[in-house]
Amino acid sequence: MRGTGSDTWVADDVFVPDYRAVSLGAIAEGTLPPTADGPMYRLPAVVAVMVPLLAPLLGVGRAALRFVADNAQTKRLAGTTISRQRESVGLQIRIAEAAMRLSTARLHAFDMAASVDDAAVDGRTFGYAARAEFRARLGYAAQQVVEALSILVDAHGAGSFAESSQLQQYWRDANIRRLPG
């Protein structure tokens, strides 16, 4: 597997004081007491951590969409009488489909973020069913981005996987960084 800039740090035999340790069970159940007063400190931990994980994936999807749309202005459409990709209705439909998938993922992310913010302000927690729904929605949103990238790679053509193509890095990053669903 080939990464694009991630690093792994490992520490052996490191002392961690009890006051620096947090129960994963308490985080998962939403029973960890807030460390300070204010809505930000009442955010439901698991849900509040999961939603921002979608942001880099959405950014990769948007960058890939821009890359394909920009290149369609000058890129030839091989094996056809169409001189530029931008003139192909088929390609326009594919780009629109990818854009719709990215928009769908973004709408889910914003809706989930609003739910988390509202819960923090109201002091509400998320039970098991709500956390499961968030995981499912995150997985669905992430899948929409990955499928949009597959559409864009297909539309752009075989050159998508050239080492010099930014699109291959976007595709690889998104397919490695899938969220749990």
From TrEMBL:
<dbReference type="InterPro" id="IPR013107">
    <property type="entry name" value="Acyl-CoA_DH_C"/>
</dbReference>
<dbReference type="GO" id="GO:0016627">
    <property type="term" value="F:oxidoreductase activity, acting on the CH-CH group of donors"/>
</dbReference>
<dbReference type="Pfam" id="PF08028">
    <property type="entry name" value="Acyl-CoA_dh_2"/>
</dbReference>
<keyword id="KW-0472">Membrane</keyword>
<dbReference type="InterPro" id="IPR036250">
    <property type="entry name" value="AcylCo_DH-like_C"/>
</dbReference>
<keyword id="KW-0812">Transmembrane</keyword>
<feature type="domain" description="Acyl-CoA dehydrogenase C-terminal">
    <location>
        <begin position="55"/>
        <end position="176"/>
    </location>
</feature>
<feature type="transmembrane region" description="Helical">
    <location>
        <begin position="43"/>
        <end position="65"/>
    </location>
</feature>
<protein>
    <recommendedName>
        <fullName>Acyl-CoA dehydrogenase C-terminal domain-containing protein</fullName>
    </recommendedName>
</protein>
<keyword id="KW-0560">Oxidoreductase</keyword>
<keyword id="KW-1133">Transmembrane helix</keyword>
